[in-house]
Design brief:
CATH class of the largest domain: Alpha Beta
Number of strands: 13
Helix content: 40-55%
CATH architecture of the largest domain: 3-Layer(aba) Sandwich
Strand content: 15-25%
Distance between the termini: 32 Å
Strand order of the largest sheet: 3-2-1-4-5-6-7
Shape: globular
CATH topology of the largest domain: Rossmann fold
C-alpha cells in the first residue's frame, strides 16, 4: 500500500510539472488496475449509505442532494466541460449542493484559482471546486464524467450511489488496443449512466446491459439567436464556418480540408472561416481566415454572418449544430447513426457521407440552392426552440432523484 501511494504521489507530481500526461503514464495504468480489483469495499459502501441517509434526515428532505463531480483537467474552450458546468449551475440553482473535483493533475495551484478559472472562462456555477481528490467529502451522488475518472469513482465509496455522466462513446477516441478496452470496461462498472442524447443510452442498454437514461444537448437562448448585427459584405462570395480542430481526430479535420480543396479545384468562389483551434500555421489550398478559439458571443456573431456551418463529429453528436441552427445558420454534418438519431437530413440539417468528394458535392448543393437552404434553415430554427439547458438539467435532476429513491 505504501509503495502504491508513493507511485501515485510521484505520478501526480510529474503531471503537475507538465512532464507526464496521465493516460500515458505506466503508474496511471497501475492505478486503474488497482482500482479494478473487487472485494473489501462492501462494508465501506454500506456505512457510507447509512451516513448519507442520516444526513438526509438531518436536512429534512431527500430532494436536496449533495453531488460530487469528478472531472479531468480542462483547457479554455472545452465543450464537454461547459456542458458539465451548465448542468452543475442549474442543479445548484435547483437547491442541490455541488462539489467539483479534478482528477489526474490540475493546471491551477489552488482551489480558489481553479474556481476563478472556471468562473472567467466557462460559467459561474456556485459550486465548490477542488484541485485534487485527496479529501473528497461524503455525498449522495458521486458522478464520473470520463473514462479516466470512472476508475477513481469506482474506488471511492463515501457516497450513496455512483453515476456516470457520458457525453460520448469514448472507446472510439482510440485505436483498438489497451486504451480502447480501458475506456470500454468502465461501462461495466455498474454505475447509473446519464447520457448526452438517446444514441448513447441505446448503445449502453444494448451492448453493455447498463442502466442509462438521457438528457438532450441544448443551447443558451440568450446568446445563440438570429438577431445579431449582420456584417456588410462587399461581394457575393460564399462564407463557410468550419469547426477546425486538427488536434481532435473525431472532428475529421482532414475530411473538411480535402472537401474545400475539391471545391476550390472546381473554381467555386468561397471563403472558409476556421474556428475552434489556433490554426495559424495551416497552409490552405483555398481562401480562409483563422478565427481561433472564440467566446460564445463572438461565435454567435460568426454564426449569424456565414452562409453555412460545417461541423463534423464522427462519434456522438455535438453542441454546435443546435447553436448554429439557433442563429439561423444552415448546418452540414456527417451522415451516421449518431447524427441520424437526432436530426433529419434535408429537414433540419444537411448530412453528407464521410467522403471528401461527396462532402464537396453537398456543400456545393447547399450554397447554390438558396430556396432549399432557407427552408431547411427555418425548419431547423423551429426544431431547436424546444431545447434549453434548464430543461436538460431538470431531466438530469429527475434521473438522480429517481435513482436515489430506489437505493436502500
Amino acid at each position: 500500500m505504501i509503495k502504491k501511494t508513493r507511485h501515485w504521489i510521484w505520478w501526480r507530481w510529474q503531471v503537475a510539472r507538465g512532464k507526464m500526461q496521465p493516460i500515458h503514464s505506466a503508474f496511471y495504468y497501475n492505478y486503474i488496475t488497482d482500482c479494478s480489483r473487487s472485494g473489501g469495499r462492501a462494508k465501506d459502501l454500506e456505512v457510507a449509505r447509512e451516513r448519507d441517509k442520516s444526513s438526509d434526515a438531518k436536512h429534512g428532505s431527500e430532494t436536496q442532494l449533495t453531488i460530487n463531480w469528478v472531472i479531468p483537467d480542462m483547457s479554455k474552450g472545452s465543450g464537454g466541460h461547459m456542458t458539465i458546468f451548465r448542468t452543475v449551475k442549474y442543479l445548484q440553482d435547483f437547491g442541490h449542493q455541488n462539489r467539483v473535483y479534478i482528477f489526474g493533475g490540475c493546471h491551477q495551484r489552488s482551489d480558489k484559482e481553479l474556481k476563478r478559472f472556471v468562473d472567467e472562462n466557462f460559467i459561474k456555477t456556485g459550486a465548490e471546486f477542488f484541485t485534487t481528490l485527496d479529501e473528497i467529502k461524503d455525498c449522495g451522488a458521486l458522478i464520473a464524467t470520463s473514462w479516466q475518472t470512472a476508475y477513481p469513482v469506482k474506488a471511492i465509496n463515501n457516497c450513496r450511489h455512483k453515476f456516470y455522466f457520458v457525453q460520448d462513446f469514448e472507446p472510439w477516441f482510440y485505436p483498438m488496443g489497451a486504451e480502447y478496452k480501458f475506456a470500454e470496461n468502465t461501462y461495466k462498472f455498474g454505475f447509473s449512466h446519464i447520457t448526452a442524447g438517446p444514441w448513447l443510452t441505446k448503445i449502453l442498454h444494448e451492448n453493455y446491459q447498463a442502466r442509462a437514461d438521457y438528457f438532450d444537448l441544448a443551447y443558451d437562448h440568450k446568446i445563440y439567436h438570429p438577431n445579431y448585427q449582420k456584417r456588410e459584405r462587399k461581394d457575393n462570395r460564399a462564407i463557410v464556418a468550419f469547426y477546425a480542430r486538427p488536434v481532435t481526430p473525431r472532428r475529421a479535420f482532414e475530411l473538411g480540408v480535402q472537401a474545400f480543396r475539391e471545391l476550390n479545384r472546381r473554381g467555386k468562389d468561397f471563403e472558409v472561416w476556421l474556428f475552434g483551434w489556433e490554426n495559424g500555421e495551416f497552409e490552405a489550398k483555398f481562401k480562409c481566415r483563422n478565427l481561433g478559439v472564440l467566446d460564445q458571443k463572438n461565435l454567435a456573431y460568426v454564426y449569424n454572418n456565414v452562409d453555412l456551418g460545417v461541423v463534423f463529429s464522427t462519434t456522438n453528436y455535438s453542441l454546435l449544430p443546435q447553436e448554429l441552427m439557433a442563429c439561423s445558420c444552415p448546418v452540414l454534418d456527417l451522415k451516421g447513426p449518431t447524427t441520424e438519431a437526432i436530426f433529419q437530413d434535408g429537414e433540419n440539417i444537411f448530412l453528407a457521407e464521410p467522403d471528401p468528394i461527396k462532402i464537396a458535392d453537398k456543400i456545393e448543393f447547399v450554397l447554390t440552392n438558396k430556396d432549399i437552404r432557407d427552408k431547411v434553415t427555418e425548419q431547423a430554427l423551429e426544431y431547436v426552440k424546444q431545447f434549453s439547458w434548464k430543461k436538460s438539467a431538470k431531466k438530469v435532476e429527475s434521473i438522480l432523484l429517481n435513482t436515489l429513491r430506489g437505493v436502500r
